[in-house]
Fold ABC transporter ATP-binding protein.
Amino acid sequence: MAAISVAGLTKRYGQTVALDDLSFRVHENEVFGFLGPNGAGKSTTINVLLDFARPTAGDVRVFDHDAQRRSREIRRRTGVLPEGASTYDRLTGRQHLEFVIGSKGADDDPERLLERVDLVDAIDKKAGGYSKGMSQRLLLAMALVGDPDLLILDEPSTGLDPNGAREMRDIVREENARGATVFFSSHIMEQVEAVCDRVGILRDGEMVAVDTVSGLRDSVGQGSTLHVWVDHVDETALERVRSTPDVTAVTTEGEGRGGESAEPTIAVQTGGAKTDVIHAIESAGLEVRDFETEETSLEDVFHAYTTGSGSGAVAGEGTRTGTETDTDPEPDTGATEETEAGRR
Ligand SMILES: Nc1ncnc2c1ncn2[C@@H]1O[C@H](COP(=O)(O)OP(=O)(O)OP(=O)(O)O)[C@@H](O)[C@H]1O
């Protein structure tokens, strides 16, 4: 059973198509990174998963429950850190947590939750006096109440300093080790790369790629870039490098490292053996002074897919097949349609 199954999801706001026939699955107990530029439709997708926005068309299931008809059950099993959520100035950290614990019928200890996010010292201080990062830590603690089966984190590192961001990643890993599925929406590549098993890239309401980070790297066809510093460059050497297996692009740079030396550089994009490239250069009589490899970053992959140069592969995906039916006869009336406040 998939933790999240989205099939043919379209969401329109008037003339705006926020989501366009979107389909993807998140497996149980995976950390799934949901990436996309501003306005791609990430928050809209999350709002539909939690029934804060109703789809125009499509089938959306969380733990095999229909997202509209079984939203109460889904929300009970889900911890959410919504993008742009704020805390209540007049309530303390403890009171925030007690409210969530009570409304979920959980029995967590607020002190233990705040220890996890390194905020226990401020447990009885009013959130109005919290810094942005402290508020974000409190919101993360609120999402952890009741050991949810699914954690939905929308831009969770907003307002966090590098230490806070690292702690947040540690918590994602701990939650995942406990058995939780984590749906991690962000446009910060490093965060996603550090914790996610698979990544989906959304562009203009469409999923343009779903794969592991390394699979996505391969799919943009760049492999890695080998920078080779040489004594001089000539056409014979470049031609030999171009005809080396798995080399996809060869460029030269006149400046050496730091810009002050005259050492020219050959930059080679290759999915194959680096030694083949070095041999090709040396066989043309050039002296190789140094070389280094630059892996394609997820940022490069993101750029390729969100600016139109990606290959558009959606790996390991498939829309839901079969004839699952939702058995809940009681439609949940707790939905708040399309309101920002409804996400909190
Ligand atoms: N309540 C709404 N009413 C009208 N249009 C909306 C509403 N919510 C979202 N949209 C539009 O839907 C599209 C997708 O927005 P969404 O907030 O889902 O994107 P996002 O990927 O979360 O962006 P960001 O990274 O900036 O948070 C945008 O064009 C946005 O303007």
The chain has two domains: 2-218+311-322, 223-295. Residues 13, 16, 18, 36, 38-44, 83, 187, 338 surround adenosine-5'-triphosphate (CB under 6 Å).
